[in-house]
Amino acid sequence: MGKKLFISYSHKDESHREDFEDHLSVLKRRGVVDVWHDRRIVPGSEWKGEIDRNLEEADIVVLLISPSFLASDYCFDVELKRAMERKDEGVAEIIAILVRPCDWNDCEFSRYQAVPKDAKPITTWSDSDSAWLDVVNGLKSHIENFEPKFIEQDVPEITGGVRASVPFKAWLDDTEIALTHRKVDKVSLADIFVMPDIELDESSDSEIVSIKGIESVVKNSGFYLLSGEEQQGKTSILKRLCSKFSEDDFIPVYLNALEIKKADLFGVISKSLGWQYESYSYRDLVASGKAVILIDNIDEIGLNSKYAGKFIEELNSVFGFIVMTCHSSFSYVQGEIKGLHDYVHGEVLSLGNKKREELVRKWIALGQEESIDDFSLYSECDELKARLDTVIKKILFLQGQYIY
Question: What pLDDT score does 218 carry?
């Protein structure tokens, strides 16, 4: 069986991608390589899920480097990031093809071998066919010599034989910010995230509120709207709730309201299921009676107020367990939105003293949970927490909120 090649490129370099494929025609005909790129996505398919799946299956990731590639957030921050992780794991190889001159030498991926010869960009050759032939010859040696390391995929079984996809599991673990730690190579969200508390309004009397841990939401089905400020970790909260719901034998489905552009409940849910689970349908989900729908940024839903209300009402009628997030300001107009009247509102609170201590303790113990002694843990925790508290106080002081 031939090696699977995944081509990562900017659509502004479409003509270069086509030239590259032309020069691969003999290798493809002989079955030496199987080439995939995003133009092979079938219309109507969930494009991100297709890209993620094929990237995970690739033996060799080919980067068509140009100014447009470096400027593309998706190519640079998503595809390249995952390709480098897979190379470090030994399951994929990376080959960079310089197609147009650009400032790539300071990029992290510049340590990988680049073609054509002497890393001279394709467009600077007097004969582009000669340049592409040099590229293909360089590629052949990688194809012959690279044997991907076999790693048994840790694909979790959720419930009743339902299996989460590898890309979905990777997304749930992703902190979405660059974190480095002296004891571990990669920091996952589960390693360091601390669930904040919420101020929960469980009564029709707006004066009656209670402070609860968000985990309590997992134990009680119903409709919940969690509000918070920008960068307060609302998406991370939903990621961790996904994991907790799974542990409790539920089937969580994550939706980003920004991507909901049609009031077609069946289509929206089916699209997400195609990315998040293996061979699981909308009808299977409804029949299970164990669905939990998690919707991020409901205040930014891609529908007008009429159809947003229609979508939410239909959602409420089909599913009995829904958790949504929104910006704090949206909670003030919650009662005016059709379909949201029956939602219990919870305001996400900032990390207090105990939560900050829990966060610090997790960070210090990371990578040495079984070996670090209590004295060392608490000593380092007190020192780091004191420094963290000092920084927080300085920020409050600068904002004019410091209270003596």
Answer: 64
For residue 321, which of 297, 280, 299, 288 has the smallest C-alpha distance? 288
Strand, helix or coil at 371?
coil
Which pLDDT belongs to residue 103? 93
- Residue 384's pLDDT is what? 55
- Cα distance between residue 364 and residue 388, in whole Å: 13
Please provide the DSSP assignment of 310-339 as one string: HHHHHHHHH-S-EEEEEEGGGGGGGGGSTT
**What domains are there in the chain, each with its CATH number?**
3-145 (3.40.50.10140), 159-175+192-348 (3.40.50.300), 353-398 (no CATH)
Task: Report d(CA 84, CA 80) in Å as an integer.
Answer: 6
pTM: 0.55
Cα 346 from chain centre: 25
What local confidence, expressed as pLDDT, does residue 220 receive? 79
Question: What is the distance between the terminal CA atoms of the chain, rounded to a whole angstrom?
Answer: 71
User: Is the separation of the CB atoms in 67 and 98 below 8 Å?
Assistant: no
Question: Tokens 């995003």 identify what position?
Answer: 38
Provide the pLDDT for residue 5: 93
Q: Among candidates 129, 104, 127, 123, which has minimal Cα distance to 114?
A: 104
Show Cβ contacts of residue 96 under 8 Å, excluding neighbours closer than 6 positions: 63, 65, 104, 109, 110, 112, 113, 114, 115
Which has the closest alpha carbon to 3: 57, 80, 83, 42?
Answer: 57
Question: Can you list the alpha helix ranges (DSSP code H) found in 248-370?
Answer: 265-276, 282-288, 305-318, 353-365
The predicted structure's pLDDT at residue 393: 45
Whether 82 contacts 173, CB under 8 Å: no
Distance CA 337, CA 384 (A): 44
Dist CA 279 CA 387 (whole Å): 49
pLDDT confidence of residue 364: 65
Segment 16-67, tens digit of pLDDT: 999 999 999 999 888 888 899 998 876 655 677 788 888 888 889 999 999 9
**Adjacent-strand bridge partners of 157:** 163
Q: For residue 114, what are the β-bridge partners?
A: 96
Cβ within 8 Å of residue 30, ≥6 positions away: none
- Which regions in the chain score pLDDT beneath 50? 150-159, 205, 377, 391-404
| Exposure on the CB side of residue 340, measured as CA atoms within 13 A | 23
